[in-house]
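User: Can you fold this complex?
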Amino acid sequence: MTITRTLMGAAATLALSAGLAAAQDSEPGLIIDLGGKFDKSFNESAYVGAQRWVEDTGGEYAEIELANEAQREQTMRRMAERGANPVVVLGFANASTLEAVAPDYPETDFVIVDMVVEQPNVKSVVFSEHEGSYLVGMMAGMASETGTVSFIGGMDVPLISKFACGYAQGVKAVNPDANVIVNMTGTTPAAWNDPVKGAELTRSQISQGSDVVFAAAGGTGIGVLQAAADEGILSIGVDSNQNHLHPGSVLTSMVKRVDNAVYDAFTASAAGELETGITVMGLENEGVAYAMDENNADLITEEMIAVVEEASDAIVAGEIQVHDYLSDNSCPVDL
Amino acid sequence: MDFLGIIQILDSALRLATPLLFACLAGLFSERAGIFDIGLEGKILASAFLSAAFAFYTGNVWLGLLAGIVASLMLSAIHGLASITFRGNQLISGVAINFLASGITVVVGEAWFGLGGRTPSLMGGARFAEITLPFADAIRGMPVIGPIYSDLLSGHSILVYFGLLCVPLTWWVLYRTRFGLRLRAVGENPAAVDTAGVSVVGLRYAAVMICGVLCGFAGAYLATALSAGFVKEMSAGRGFIALAALIFAKWRPWYALGATFLFGLLDAFGNRYQSLDLFGVDIPTQFMQALPYILTVVILAGFVGRAIPPRAGGKPYVKER
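Assistant: Here's the predicted assembly.
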């Protein structure tokens, strides 16, 4: 009995000292959000970026995957207290928590993806999703034969409406008479992980005539792409390149280079030159893009690429202004 | 809303109601025998996971279905052991099963596939295909009957038809067989059944196992027919909705069909009309999506008549000495 207790005590001491050792060198930390590390989408992209940094530099980083909403603050604080620097958090849902946590750790840099937090030690990386969505919307408009295309969002939040609004504008740009159906999966974080509902929404949209569906819904999107492939219509993936999921059915993917954001944050911090403030990743710095590879080469014609490239250049040059839903919480085209 | 639109909504409702129907009938068997089961959700989840995993490994959806049923049966056995043999609290055992399933599916999934608790996507023979009923194409052109038969009834996976078949089957077993009579009696007055020389423990175990099998079907349907693979927490509260439907149905099989179909219909309706303009009033998406849950609360608050549960429900049976 006493021996066991001694052993346990020794083990605890060991664990403590290990924790202290970790605190001395400042390795970067990544907090994976609720969708899960392998959501084939947003979080996976961040994970891929971190892995690429490990491969390139041989460094190490700390990683925690959130299991539920209540762990956000605790996890952020634990990361900071362990001495991780910078601490990268993913997704708009972290904003209010980070707002409260960041001032308590002035020595630690935080990076938040997808939302702006105005604190001196926070770097906010936001993407011009509306521009990327605009381009894939143009593709959808050109690929559609019925003149009806659709959009499935995850949780009903302004960020997802930003995708929807950009997409609708793109569709209308090539086909002003097109009908765009917009559906949201739900109003709770569970909406990111409900492929059954995603598939059912897709079938409902197909019955209303849609033949291209754009899913910006995390794990729910897997069900959307599956249903689209089953029913023989086209789909558009999001965040990561999802073209390979159903070759010949996924028209393209609106790639959001979260991996680059994470990679850059890690690299800059290691060099000691992480700049806090707001960084916008758009078309010009390849923060957003449409994905082309061998899986969708047959679906996209030269003509489509030409039109989209032209629009892309015009957006970068400022000749086309894609309305950002977040700027005034409204959309010029009817959603 | 035109005729075709109605058909499409009903079609979607039928798909969405099927897992609820299986789970509801599962709960019906268990609760009629006096064992409350709030672990339906956990059993569905476990079955969904194992059926998707086995369907992926073997490429055969039937083996997947079998594995799903086995997973669900194992949890049923735990529930039986805790609440029948050891006379524990049935609600606590059910909650434990839900937690167990929610955790273990992700842990095992991560160990097997390394995809964060997901299984890889299922292709071809690893999924239940849609079945076209005979003559579906021939009579499609007929007015009214054509669309109802070809679009609404035809074109579902075999589990949907099996689920519908389970309703009369359940009715027959419960009300027309000796086993059913005893099963209902054991939920009302186990002492009387015991006096007649029939094993209360045996009957209750049988009921809990039937519940396991039916939950197995519900889970397998979710993972291998409605979608192609398992995603963590994919049951998304369907076990609890089924439980509400069971109370709504007053523990009767035909009513269970009606109740689950109503929930499926609301879900389908919410999907189709995310914002509805009703007599000039704009009903927001959030309301439409919350409708099944609002209905659940209304039902559970007892607005829909008196629902009287089996009298011995929730009480472990202790033999008199």
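The longest strand of chain A covers residues 148-155. Chain A touches chain B at residues 36-39, 65, 156, 182-184, 186-187, 190, 193-197, 199-201, 203-204, 207-208, 219, 222-223, 226, 245 (CB under 8 Å).
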